[in-house]
Amino acid sequence: MVESHIDVEDSACRGDLKVYLDAAPGVGKTHQMLDAARDLQRRGTDVVIGVAETHGRPETLSLCEGLESLPLKEVEYEGKQLQEFDLDAALKRRPQILLLDELAHWNIPGARHPRRYQDIEELLDQGITVWTAMSIQHLESLSDVVASITGIRMRETVPDSVLDRASDIVLVDATPSELLERLEQGKVHLPERTSATGEGYFSPSNLCTL
């Protein structure tokens, strides 16, 4: 892990963006983000969860306990009731640090912004520091490279300019053997269009290359 210093003091200027970045899903970037947030909360920092994608994993869910979470907004789409991040509630709450997982996420049609990174831009412009997480296969400039390695092209990508504006990037990694063990234990949320067994994407050679 490589992590740089972050200043969490209140500021009237633009908020800071901190990104937890990994080479492959499942190494624990959300877990590490929540763990760091809990540590800052214990030291008196006002930390709030906007979205934390736990995928039902008990160890990740336990890290959310004790952290304030904003209720998700109910949105009707194509006759279904769905839940989405509530941007206006976050702007009203104005925590020192807002955790907003899954940087590459597409919002439900009809939201103020089509993409989560655009929500984050608005939060940063309002002076709110945001922590988020993503895997490199979602970075626009690397999507072709990753697709050539894995045979899988990600639909959700993030412009490189978003990462360029981050004040802190935390690299979260694991060895291929560790990640494959997590996969076998059901601790990995598979990326879109990968098989249930992780064949192809999670081959040892692909993980080493990534």
C-alpha geometry: globular
Distance from N terminus to C terminus (CA atoms, Å) equals 16 Å
Q: Could you name the ranges where pLDDT drops below 50 across 5 or more consecutive residues?
A: 1-11, 193-198
Count, helices: 8
Residues in β-strands, percent: 15-25%
Q: Over all CA atoms, what is the radius of gyration?
A: 17 Å
Task: Give the class from helix and strand content and strand pairing.
Answer: alpha/beta
Helical coverage, percent range: 25-40%
Largest sheet: 6 strands, parallel
Instruction: For the largest sheet, list the strands in their spatial order.
Output: 3-2-6-7-1-8
**Total beta strands:** 8
Question: What's the pLDDT, averaged over the residues?
Answer: 85
The ordered string of helix (H) and strand (E) elements is: EHEHEEEHEHEHHEHH
Short précis:
By secondary structure, this protein is an alpha/beta fold. Helices cover 31% and strands 19% of the residues.
Features:
8 strands, globular, disordered N terminus
Describe, in plain words, how this protein is organized in 3D:
The chain is an alpha/beta fold and 210 residues long. The chain has helices at residues 29-42, 58-64, 87-93, 116-125, 143-150, 160-164, 176-184, 204-209, and strands spanning 17-22, 47-51, 68-69, 73-77, 80-84, 97-100, 129-135, 168-172. It has a 6-stranded parallel sheet, with helices on both faces. Helix 1 runs parallel beside helix 2. The longest helix has 14 residues, at 29-42. It is globular.
